[in-house]
Design a protein that fits this description.
elongated, two-stranded antiparallel ribbon, three-stranded antiparallel β-sheet, alpha+beta, about 30% strand
Length: about 100
């Protein structure tokens, strides 16, 4: 058996060919049919915002800030009680369309 096969069989949960997302797109579905997309550099950054901002104020009609780090000078606020769904999509550098 080759060394690569031995390493892969020692850790069956992680392939040596596994890709790591370069960022995460979070699709926010808002009451009334509106949709917004924001991007987070890591899943941990998203989880920090989600558990620290959105969940504790989920029933509130007060605005909370949604981090938009990749667009300078622009910001977004949302009423947490109006968020009806979130979809988290890993974005891989290789999946970006090239023109």
């Amino acid at each position: 058996m080759s060394q690569a096969m031995v390493e892969d069989s020692a850790n069956p949960k992680r392939s040596r060919y596994a890709r790591t997302p370069s960022e995460y797109a979070v699709h926010i579905m808002i009451e009334g049919g509106h949709r917004e997309e924001v991007r987070f550099p890591t899943i941990q950054e998203f989880q920090k915002w989600y558990s620290g901002e959105l969940v504790p104020k989920s029933a509130s009609d007060d605005f909370i800030s949604v981090p938009i780090k990749n667009i300078q000078g622009e910001y977004m606020v949302v009423r947490p009680s109006r968020v009806i769904a979130l979809r988290v999509e890993p974005i891989f550098a290789s999946s970006v369309e090239r023109f």
